[in-house]
Structures are given as structure tokens and as C-alpha cells.
């Protein structure tokens, strides 16, 4: 039986530095996170992404049917997740690794599953290592706003996840020693 500590040390969990700043992408240009690399597709349903000349990021998205909450509409957790993903890709599209520190989501209208949607995301301001990013999800065709989000992303160096693994091992060790 594996433990959480075993999983953290599994060699295929190790990423090279370039995996963070220049991650594998789909044909639609979508940067792939950990578990989506094996599937070669974004499991949240982000199908295409691009950064325009003005610095706005555009995403073609569709809510997968398995993310249905109410009848024919997305679970709110999907809406929050995909906005976290899209807004968090703005630093990545600028070759910068960051993690979400804060995220606020307004659920304006129910989000239909299996329909083409668009997410637009932009930088409001940058202060120190903090990127303040906003975005919105709209229905296609047309431009009805379904959800809005804003948050703070904090830039990290590529040692972030290794430091986390060491911290986790310390937590496990102290929990074991204290019984
Ligand atoms: C290709 C795919 C690549 C993979 C991308 C993966 C993206 C993710 O995993 S996102 C996952 C969800 N988010 C997380 O797991 C983050 C968990 N939280 C953390 O790791 C930490 O709390 C972290 C990094 C945000 C801040 O760590 P901390 O030790 O407080 O850092 P610290 O050095 O004190 O602060 C760094 C900066 O963050 C700011 N900050 C910290 N927490 C917050 C917060 N909650 N809100 C706003 N700002 C904050 C500080 O003010 C500081 O700003 P500055 O450098 O401008 O003075």
C-alpha cells in the first residue's frame, strides 16, 4: 500500500524547470497541468488559448457533461476551477510560474454544459510578486456574461513544489513522532 509520502517521491512526479515556464501544450495551445499531461487534454474543457497583442488572454472552453450540476448546467465548482485555470494561465503565457493566492468568483447566470463558451482574462496590476488578474466567462454566440472572477497570483521559482514536498515530509515525520 502506498502512503502520501511514497506518492510525493514517485519519480514521474518530478518535473524539470522547463516544465513550468514552457509546459507541454495541446494543439490548441493550452498549457497542461500535472494530471492532464497523461490525457494530453485539459480535463476541465479548455480547448484553445492565446494571448493577444494587448496582453489579454482568450480561451475557448466547454463544460464537460461529467461536470453537470443542476440539469444541463455546470456545477459551480467547475466554473470556479476553469476560471482559476484560465486566469492562472495569464502569468504562464508570460513565461512566469505562479500559484493562486486568492480567488473570488461571481456566478452571474447558470452555465450550460456542452456549449461553446469564451473566457477572457487580463492583468489589472502587478505589485512585487503579486499579479492581480480579472476575467469573465461569456456564452457564445453573443456575449452574455455568465461568471466573473478576480484574484491574486504570486510568482514562484521552480523550487516551490520541492519545498512543499519537504514541508509535507516534515509534517508526516512530526505526526509520526507525536503518535
Ligand atoms: C504548467 C502548470 C504549472 C503548474 C501551476 C500550478 C498552479 C497551482 O498549483 S495553483 C494551486 C492553488 N494554490 C496554491 O497551492 C498556493 C498555496 N499557497 C502558497 O503556496 C503560499 O501561501 C503562497 C505562495 C501563495 C504565499 O506563500 P508565502 O510563504 O506567504 O510567501 P511570501 O514570500 O510570504 O509572500 C509572497 C508574496 O505573496 C503575497 N501573498 C501571500 N499570501 C497572499 C494572499 N493570500 N493574498 C495576496 N497576497 C498574498 C505576499 O504579500 C508576498 O507579496 P510580495 O512578494 O509582493 O511582497
Automatic annotation (TrEMBL):
<keyword id="KW-1003">Cell membrane</keyword>
<dbReference type="InterPro" id="IPR006683">
    <property type="entry name" value="Thioestr_dom"/>
</dbReference>
<feature type="region of interest" description="Disordered">
    <location>
        <begin position="1"/>
        <end position="22"/>
    </location>
</feature>
<comment type="similarity">
    <text>Belongs to the THEM4/THEM5 thioesterase family.</text>
</comment>
<keyword id="KW-0053">Apoptosis</keyword>
<dbReference type="GO" id="GO:0016787">
    <property type="term" value="F:hydrolase activity"/>
</dbReference>
<dbReference type="Pfam" id="PF03061">
    <property type="entry name" value="4HBT"/>
</dbReference>
<dbReference type="GO" id="GO:0005737">
    <property type="term" value="C:cytoplasm"/>
</dbReference>
<keyword id="KW-0963">Cytoplasm</keyword>
<keyword id="KW-0276">Fatty acid metabolism</keyword>
<keyword id="KW-0443">Lipid metabolism</keyword>
<keyword id="KW-0809">Transit peptide</keyword>
<keyword id="KW-0966">Cell projection</keyword>
<keyword id="KW-0472">Membrane</keyword>
<dbReference type="InterPro" id="IPR052365">
    <property type="entry name" value="THEM4/THEM5_acyl-CoA_thioest"/>
</dbReference>
<dbReference type="GO" id="GO:0006631">
    <property type="term" value="P:fatty acid metabolic process"/>
</dbReference>
<dbReference type="InterPro" id="IPR029069">
    <property type="entry name" value="HotDog_dom_sf"/>
</dbReference>
<dbReference type="GO" id="GO:0016020">
    <property type="term" value="C:membrane"/>
</dbReference>
<keyword id="KW-0378">Hydrolase</keyword>
<protein>
    <recommendedName>
        <fullName>Acyl-coenzyme A thioesterase THEM4</fullName>
        <ecNumber>3.1.2.2</ecNumber>
    </recommendedName>
</protein>
<feature type="domain" description="Thioesterase">
    <location>
        <begin position="72"/>
        <end position="142"/>
    </location>
</feature>
